[in-house]
User: Fold this.
Amino acid sequence: MITVTDLRKVYRQGARDVVALDGVSMSVPKGSIHGIIGHSGAGKSTLVRCLTLLDRPTSGTVTIDGRELTNVKDAEIRQARRRIGMVFQHANLMDSRTAAANVAHPLELVGTPRREIQARVTELLALVGLADFADAYPAQLSGGQKQRVGIARALAAHPDVLLCDEPTSALDPRTTDEILDLIAELTRRLELTVLIITHEMNVVKRICDSVSLLEAGRVVEHGPLQEVASDLGGRLAKALIPLPATPPIPGGPVVELLMVGEHATEPVLSGLTRRFDTDVNVLAGSVETLAGTRFGRLRVQLDQSTDMDAVRTYLAAQGVAVEVAA
Assistant:
């Protein structure tokens, strides 16, 4: 549904070039939710501007449902943008307009008949749980309600793609979960394809099907959530299933174990203890459910005399990934 291929954006600043995007490529299937995560300065804002054609990329392509958007003529940009609904960090509502009027605005801009606008606004406000707030002004709404209006407005023109730029970073944790659950529900109900730009790993954990890690304008890790979380040594895996830091402990080797799916509920450590007649000291552990799959991660210390090659072979047979931490 969404294919980004070798996208580059270079800005000219004085006598030097600043590379904001350096060959970004990704593919997002129709009906899925993809998270793009990265720290400030990673290139997330530039990527948003290129995806929405607010900035023309220096090179590369953006294709949505088979249509390449990066080479549309200037006169066709507004029509092309209608395929992408935009949800902003702070909702960006017009204070002088009611909730209903804010949702109606993009339809008014393209000359939609008034009766159609009224019907669409009523439908969308009900869809986001604000049927009784049509006449409320932004100042009368909570942060979560404003974001719901913003989502309804983004859906007004029947877009194929919903692009959410830090949609929950200004909200409290409970409201964040409610908004994310709403986005997930709308994705299923309306068969949307959703891109969420965020710096919060909890957003990715809660609703994303796949994820890309953006750093210095490049995608350094990318894939379905279950796949990246299964890479024991990957940076995304460590962020998705974090373990607290533990101080160095004299003694035997420290290893990290990753168990996925049914293996996450099996008594791996007791089996290891019996098989090798060894003590296992659990230093840290974490369990997460990601994209419907259960993941367990452990940091343990084994006896000094432990045969690590034999341990690796045994654990691999049990479906457990092993990485020596120290």
